[in-house]
Design goal:
Layout lengths: L7 H13 L2 H8 L3 H15 L4 E2 L7 E2 L1 H26 L1 H4 L1 E8 H8 L3 H7 L3 E8 L6 H4 L6 E7 L8 E14 L12 H5 L2 E4 L5 H12 L6 E5 L3 H9 L5 E4 L11 E16 L6 H15 L8 E2 L6
Helix pairs in contact: 1-2, 1-3, 2-3
Protein name: LysR family transcriptional regulator
Keywords: DNA-binding, Transcription, Transcription regulation
Family: Belongs to the LysR transcriptional regulatory family.
Length: about 325
Protein backbone atom coordinates (compact mmCIF):
# COMPACT_ATOMS: atom_id res chain seq x y z
CA UNK A 1 0.00 0.00 0.00
CA UNK A 2 1.35 3.43 -0.92
CA UNK A 3 1.93 6.02 1.79
CA UNK A 4 -1.34 7.81 2.50
CA UNK A 5 -1.42 11.65 2.46
CA UNK A 6 -3.10 11.71 5.86
CA UNK A 7 -2.92 10.23 9.34
CA UNK A 8 -5.72 8.59 11.33
CA UNK A 9 -5.55 11.50 13.76
CA UNK A 10 -6.17 13.98 10.92
CA UNK A 11 -9.16 11.91 9.79
CA UNK A 12 -10.55 11.96 13.35
CA UNK A 13 -10.26 15.76 13.37
CA UNK A 14 -11.92 16.03 9.96
CA UNK A 15 -14.77 13.73 11.02
CA UNK A 16 -15.32 15.67 14.24
CA UNK A 17 -15.45 19.00 12.39
CA UNK A 18 -17.98 17.57 9.95
CA UNK A 19 -20.15 16.58 12.92
CA UNK A 20 -19.81 19.77 15.00
CA UNK A 21 -19.00 22.48 12.43
CA UNK A 22 -17.16 24.12 15.33
CA UNK A 23 -13.44 24.22 16.11
CA UNK A 24 -14.26 24.85 19.78
CA UNK A 25 -16.69 21.94 20.12
CA UNK A 26 -14.36 19.58 18.27
CA UNK A 27 -11.49 20.60 20.54
CA UNK A 28 -13.62 19.97 23.63
CA UNK A 29 -14.91 16.61 22.41
CA UNK A 30 -11.42 15.39 21.47
CA UNK A 31 -9.73 16.83 24.56
CA UNK A 32 -7.19 18.94 22.66
CA UNK A 33 -6.75 22.64 21.92
CA UNK A 34 -8.48 24.57 19.14
CA UNK A 35 -5.04 25.40 17.77
CA UNK A 36 -4.27 21.69 17.48
CA UNK A 37 -7.57 21.11 15.63
CA UNK A 38 -6.75 23.95 13.23
CA UNK A 39 -3.17 22.75 12.71
CA UNK A 40 -4.26 19.16 12.01
CA UNK A 41 -6.83 20.33 9.46
CA UNK A 42 -4.36 22.69 7.80
CA UNK A 43 -1.77 19.93 7.48
CA UNK A 44 -4.37 17.55 6.05
CA UNK A 45 -5.40 20.11 3.43
CA UNK A 46 -1.77 20.78 2.52
CA UNK A 47 -1.04 17.08 2.13
CA UNK A 48 -4.14 16.55 0.00
CA UNK A 49 -3.60 19.74 -1.99
CA UNK A 50 -7.24 20.83 -1.61
CA UNK A 51 -9.30 23.01 0.72
CA UNK A 52 -11.82 20.96 2.71
CA UNK A 53 -13.55 23.74 4.66
CA UNK A 54 -14.41 27.38 3.97
CA UNK A 55 -13.31 29.29 7.06
CA UNK A 56 -14.66 32.79 7.68
CA UNK A 57 -14.09 34.67 10.99
CA UNK A 58 -17.26 34.70 13.08
CA UNK A 59 -18.97 31.98 11.02
CA UNK A 60 -19.14 28.22 11.24
CA UNK A 61 -16.76 26.33 8.92
CA UNK A 62 -18.48 24.98 5.81
CA UNK A 63 -17.45 22.01 3.68
CA UNK A 64 -16.20 22.86 0.21
CA UNK A 65 -17.09 20.76 -2.81
CA UNK A 66 -13.81 18.90 -2.36
CA UNK A 67 -14.66 18.51 1.32
CA UNK A 68 -18.03 16.96 0.53
CA UNK A 69 -16.40 14.47 -1.84
CA UNK A 70 -13.70 13.66 0.72
CA UNK A 71 -16.38 13.12 3.39
CA UNK A 72 -18.15 10.55 1.20
CA UNK A 73 -14.92 8.65 0.62
CA UNK A 74 -14.02 8.95 4.31
CA UNK A 75 -17.29 7.30 5.32
CA UNK A 76 -16.55 4.37 3.02
CA UNK A 77 -13.05 4.20 4.47
CA UNK A 78 -14.42 4.25 8.04
CA UNK A 79 -16.82 1.41 7.25
CA UNK A 80 -13.99 -0.66 5.79
CA UNK A 81 -11.78 0.09 8.79
CA UNK A 82 -14.57 -1.01 11.13
CA UNK A 83 -14.92 -4.26 9.18
CA UNK A 84 -11.18 -4.88 9.47
CA UNK A 85 -11.28 -4.15 13.20
CA UNK A 86 -14.07 -6.70 13.51
CA UNK A 87 -11.62 -9.47 12.64
CA UNK A 88 -9.66 -8.62 15.78
CA UNK A 89 -12.78 -8.70 17.94
CA UNK A 90 -13.82 -12.10 16.63
CA UNK A 91 -10.40 -13.58 17.30
CA UNK A 92 -9.60 -11.74 20.50
CA UNK A 93 -9.84 -14.92 22.55
CA UNK A 94 -7.13 -16.65 20.55
CA UNK A 95 -4.89 -13.86 19.31
CA UNK A 96 -4.13 -12.23 22.66
CA UNK A 97 -4.30 -8.67 23.96
CA UNK A 98 -4.30 -5.38 22.06
CA UNK A 99 -3.32 -2.33 24.15
CA UNK A 100 -4.05 1.26 23.16
CA UNK A 101 -1.54 3.71 24.61
CA UNK A 102 -1.32 7.50 24.66
CA UNK A 103 2.28 8.70 24.95
CA UNK A 104 4.28 11.90 24.63
CA UNK A 105 6.34 12.21 21.47
CA UNK A 106 9.78 12.44 23.08
CA UNK A 107 8.97 9.51 25.38
CA UNK A 108 7.94 7.40 22.41
CA UNK A 109 10.71 8.39 19.99
CA UNK A 110 13.62 8.39 22.46
CA UNK A 111 12.76 5.69 24.99
CA UNK A 112 9.91 3.35 24.07
CA UNK A 113 10.07 2.79 20.31
CA UNK A 114 13.78 1.78 20.32
CA UNK A 115 12.94 -1.05 22.77
CA UNK A 116 9.66 -2.24 21.25
CA UNK A 117 11.15 -4.97 19.07
CA UNK A 118 12.47 -6.85 22.11
CA UNK A 119 9.13 -6.63 23.92
CA UNK A 120 7.09 -7.79 20.90
CA UNK A 121 9.42 -10.70 20.24
CA UNK A 122 9.22 -11.78 23.87
CA UNK A 123 5.44 -11.29 24.06
CA UNK A 124 3.92 -12.10 20.65
CA UNK A 125 0.49 -12.46 22.29
CA UNK A 126 0.42 -8.70 23.05
CA UNK A 127 -0.12 -5.95 20.49
CA UNK A 128 0.72 -2.30 21.16
CA UNK A 129 -0.98 0.63 19.43
CA UNK A 130 0.22 4.18 20.16
CA UNK A 131 -1.22 7.65 19.81
CA UNK A 132 1.58 10.20 20.10
CA UNK A 133 0.98 13.70 21.45
CA UNK A 134 2.91 16.92 22.05
CA UNK A 135 3.98 18.20 25.50
CA UNK A 136 1.11 19.81 27.39
CA UNK A 137 -1.43 18.94 24.69
CA UNK A 138 -3.57 16.28 26.36
CA UNK A 139 -6.41 16.65 28.86
CA UNK A 140 -7.44 14.22 31.58
CA UNK A 141 -10.89 13.73 30.04
CA UNK A 142 -9.34 12.73 26.74
CA UNK A 143 -7.08 10.16 28.42
CA UNK A 144 -9.83 8.69 30.60
CA UNK A 145 -12.68 8.43 28.08
CA UNK A 146 -12.10 4.68 27.76
CA UNK A 147 -10.11 4.54 24.55
CA UNK A 148 -6.69 4.11 26.20
CA UNK A 149 -5.43 1.28 28.39
CA UNK A 150 -2.32 3.25 29.39
CA UNK A 151 -0.93 6.75 29.07
CA UNK A 152 2.55 8.13 29.71
CA UNK A 153 3.21 11.82 29.21
CA UNK A 154 4.71 15.01 30.61
CA UNK A 155 2.75 17.92 32.06
CA UNK A 156 3.61 21.09 33.93
CA UNK A 157 3.92 20.81 37.70
CA UNK A 158 0.78 22.92 38.22
CA UNK A 159 -1.34 20.42 36.20
CA UNK A 160 -3.30 18.27 38.60
CA UNK A 161 -3.60 14.58 37.64
CA UNK A 162 -6.86 12.73 38.21
CA UNK A 163 -7.48 9.85 40.61
CA UNK A 164 -6.24 7.15 38.23
CA UNK A 165 -3.02 8.99 37.34
CA UNK A 166 0.31 8.86 39.15
CA UNK A 167 3.18 11.36 39.16
CA UNK A 168 6.30 9.25 38.71
CA UNK A 169 9.11 11.76 38.30
CA UNK A 170 9.91 15.44 38.12
CA UNK A 171 12.39 17.33 35.95
CA UNK A 172 13.52 20.88 35.28
CA UNK A 173 12.30 23.14 32.52
CA UNK A 174 13.43 26.55 31.41
CA UNK A 175 15.47 28.45 28.86
CA UNK A 176 18.39 26.35 27.68
CA UNK A 177 21.33 27.48 25.59
CA UNK A 178 24.89 26.70 24.62
CA UNK A 179 27.47 27.54 27.27
CA UNK A 180 28.71 30.38 25.07
CA UNK A 181 25.61 32.36 26.08
CA UNK A 182 26.68 32.42 29.74
CA UNK A 183 28.17 35.73 30.96
CA UNK A 184 31.93 35.85 31.44
CA UNK A 185 31.53 35.44 35.19
CA UNK A 186 29.59 32.20 34.69
CA UNK A 187 26.47 33.51 36.42
CA UNK A 188 23.01 33.04 34.94
CA UNK A 189 21.98 35.89 32.60
CA UNK A 190 19.24 38.26 33.76
CA UNK A 191 15.92 38.68 31.98
CA UNK A 192 17.04 41.74 30.01
CA UNK A 193 20.03 39.88 28.63
CA UNK A 194 17.83 36.91 27.73
CA UNK A 195 15.45 39.13 25.74
CA UNK A 196 18.25 40.13 23.37
CA UNK A 197 19.45 36.58 22.71
CA UNK A 198 18.39 34.63 19.59
CA UNK A 199 15.26 32.64 20.42
CA UNK A 200 14.04 29.44 18.78
CA UNK A 201 10.27 29.09 19.19
CA UNK A 202 7.60 26.54 18.28
CA UNK A 203 5.48 26.99 15.17
CA UNK A 204 3.70 30.37 14.98
CA UNK A 205 0.14 30.24 16.29
CA UNK A 206 0.53 26.77 17.79
CA UNK A 207 -0.54 25.84 21.33
CA UNK A 208 3.11 25.22 22.44
CA UNK A 209 4.09 28.69 21.15
CA UNK A 210 1.25 30.41 22.99
CA UNK A 211 2.07 28.52 26.18
CA UNK A 212 5.77 29.41 25.98
CA UNK A 213 5.16 33.09 25.25
CA UNK A 214 2.65 33.30 28.12
CA UNK A 215 5.11 31.75 30.57
CA UNK A 216 7.89 34.04 29.35
CA UNK A 217 5.69 37.15 29.68
CA UNK A 218 4.76 36.15 33.23
CA UNK A 219 8.47 36.31 34.01
CA UNK A 220 9.01 39.62 32.26
CA UNK A 221 10.75 38.13 29.22
CA UNK A 222 9.69 39.22 25.72
CA UNK A 223 11.93 37.71 23.02
CA UNK A 224 13.15 40.39 20.60
CA UNK A 225 15.15 38.17 18.25
CA UNK A 226 13.34 35.13 16.91
CA UNK A 227 15.76 33.37 14.60
CA UNK A 228 13.78 30.21 13.88
CA UNK A 229 10.50 28.39 14.46
CA UNK A 230 10.01 24.62 14.41
CA UNK A 231 7.28 22.29 15.72
CA UNK A 232 9.91 19.63 16.47
CA UNK A 233 11.52 19.79 19.89
CA UNK A 234 14.35 17.43 18.91
CA UNK A 235 15.26 19.85 16.09
CA UNK A 236 15.03 22.73 18.56
CA UNK A 237 17.36 20.96 20.99
CA UNK A 238 19.82 20.17 18.20
CA UNK A 239 19.94 23.84 17.19
CA UNK A 240 20.50 24.83 20.81
CA UNK A 241 23.36 22.35 21.05
CA UNK A 242 24.99 23.91 17.97
CA UNK A 243 24.77 27.36 19.55
CA UNK A 244 22.29 28.75 17.00
CA UNK A 245 19.94 30.08 19.64
CA UNK A 246 18.25 29.55 22.99
CA UNK A 247 14.92 27.80 23.58
CA UNK A 248 12.37 26.82 26.20
CA UNK A 249 12.82 23.10 26.77
CA UNK A 250 12.15 20.40 29.32
CA UNK A 251 15.22 18.55 30.56
CA UNK A 252 14.22 15.25 28.95
CA UNK A 253 14.14 16.88 25.49
CA UNK A 254 17.91 17.31 25.61
CA UNK A 255 20.00 14.30 24.66
CA UNK A 256 22.18 13.10 27.52
CA UNK A 257 25.11 13.30 25.08
CA UNK A 258 24.44 17.03 24.61
CA UNK A 259 24.17 18.03 28.24
CA UNK A 260 27.83 18.93 28.57
CA UNK A 261 27.42 21.66 25.94
CA UNK A 262 23.93 22.87 26.92
CA UNK A 263 23.15 24.58 30.21
CA UNK A 264 20.05 25.91 31.94
CA UNK A 265 20.17 29.67 31.57
CA UNK A 266 16.89 30.41 33.35
CA UNK A 267 14.71 27.95 35.28
CA UNK A 268 10.97 28.16 34.64
CA UNK A 269 9.47 25.49 36.86
CA UNK A 270 9.17 21.73 36.76
CA UNK A 271 7.43 19.17 34.57
CA UNK A 272 6.12 15.84 35.82
CA UNK A 273 6.13 12.42 34.23
CA UNK A 274 2.55 11.16 34.58
CA UNK A 275 1.27 7.62 34.10
CA UNK A 276 -2.28 6.35 33.71
CA UNK A 277 -3.75 2.86 33.71
CA UNK A 278 -7.40 2.26 32.90
CA UNK A 279 -9.24 0.61 35.80
CA UNK A 280 -9.85 -3.04 34.93
CA UNK A 281 -9.68 -6.53 36.48
CA UNK A 282 -6.16 -7.89 37.19
CA UNK A 283 -4.38 -9.18 34.09
CA UNK A 284 -0.76 -10.33 34.04
CA UNK A 285 -0.42 -9.27 30.39
CA UNK A 286 -1.38 -5.69 31.28
CA UNK A 287 1.21 -5.80 34.06
CA UNK A 288 3.85 -6.74 31.48
CA UNK A 289 2.88 -3.77 29.32
CA UNK A 290 3.03 -1.46 32.33
CA UNK A 291 6.44 -2.76 33.35
CA UNK A 292 7.76 -2.39 29.81
CA UNK A 293 6.58 1.23 29.45
CA UNK A 294 7.96 2.36 32.79
CA UNK A 295 11.26 0.48 32.53
CA UNK A 296 11.82 1.83 29.00
CA UNK A 297 11.82 5.35 30.41
CA UNK A 298 12.84 5.27 34.06
CA UNK A 299 15.57 2.63 33.69
CA UNK A 300 17.15 4.40 30.73
CA UNK A 301 20.38 6.13 31.85
CA UNK A 302 19.64 9.00 29.48
CA UNK A 303 16.36 9.95 31.15
CA UNK A 304 16.86 12.85 33.58
CA UNK A 305 14.94 12.35 36.80
CA UNK A 306 15.04 14.99 39.51
CA UNK A 307 12.66 13.14 41.78
CA UNK A 308 11.26 9.64 41.31
CA UNK A 309 8.21 8.15 43.03
CA UNK A 310 8.10 4.81 41.31
CA UNK A 311 7.11 2.69 44.28
CA UNK A 312 3.44 3.79 44.25
CA UNK A 313 2.85 3.82 40.51
CA UNK A 314 -0.02 2.34 38.61
Amino acid sequence: MQNMPFTLRQLQVFSSLCDTLSFRKSAESMGISQASISAQLKTLEQQLGVMLFHRTPGKRPELTGEGEAFLLDFRRFAQSAEALAGHRRRTAGTCGLQCNIYIGRSLFDDYVRPKMDGFLIEHPEIGLSFEVGLPGECHADYIENGRFDFALFHQRDDWRPSTHMDVLACMKSGIYGHRKFLPANGAAPDTRALETMPFILPEAGSAPERMQLRVLRNRGIRPRRIVCRTPYFDVMASMVERGLGIACLVENQISHLSRQEICLLYEMGRWNLIAYRKPCPPDARLDRVRDFLLASVLDDPGYPVTRAMVQNMM
